[in-house]
Amino acid sequence: MKSVTIGQLKPGMILGENILYEEEVLYPKNTVLNEVIIKGLDRYSIISAVIKEDKDLAATHYERVRFNDDFKLFAEKHSKNLFVYKRLLQNFMKNKQQIPDNALLALYYDMASTYSYGSELLDFLYNLVPNEDELTYTHCLNSALLAGTFAEWINMPKAEAEQLILSCFYYDIGKLDLPYEILWKAGKLTEEEFTLVKKHPVIGYALLNQTTLNQHIKNAVIMHHERMDGTGYPYHMKGKSIDLYARYIAIIDTYIAMASPRSYREALTPLQILGYFELNMKDYDTELLLPLMERIGDAQIGTTVQLNDGSMWEVVVIHPARKSRPILKNDNSEVMDLLEYPDLQIVKSL
Which of 53, 68, 101, 116 makes the best surface tag, with the fewest CB within 10 Å? Predict the structure, then answer.
């Protein structure tokens, strides 16, 4: 809410506080102003009024996030730093001059300064509207942000956390040598197109192999699509033979890909993403994944979700074993356990 002078009042504004005249309520809180009321306030020599701002009118968690000043600053810094990050990578691709680690970490810390908690970052990423012309760069930039939050959640030492963050800035660099229209094709890739896309880890490793980057970063580039059960690519590696940083990035990459909107679908909610992880647990290092899933699940308590039947509910309890199927409560104080209603699905966070 904010206080404005009578001359600044406009029809349609909503009072945030009662307007008093000689200790009597002249117009109550929540009154929608019109020309008659505004002229009346002038006759009573009222100097100012408190009105509601957009963020005060937001009815759901994610509406409030979009009007949040920290989110607006995050989006502004994200746009600025995305441009810098793109220029750094393009210069590397053209001149093969290694990017100083501190140049990339400065981008991370500048954006990380806009949020205090990992749950805030998840909210910010869900509400961020990406530039579809910059998807490869945006994907890695967002992954670096999520890596920092994951590292904080598991108390990873700062030096290791920064190597993980740097790994995210680089892990998809091989895609910059591939046709954009294939990488971000809306429909299903042909077999030939998918074969080409699967070359990006090897291409990326070749680009970085002559640099002095930490070997974990190079390993993350070539191994981030390997899977614990050996079904990944390019070498069908299994289990702990996959570099630790690559095992983390497999989780981060999946989360960011699903949390990002595309021209052919909306961003998936954190709870939908948890559902995907629950169904594909064999692909990931569960020692790394389960603690992260717990933190992601806890961050959803208090948010509002929409189900596939159109109804809206608040998330009140996260099941330890099925985090994607929480207990919900509606405005009528009715409680529903999604575990008991398999046909109902969460389709949107509000």
Answer: 116
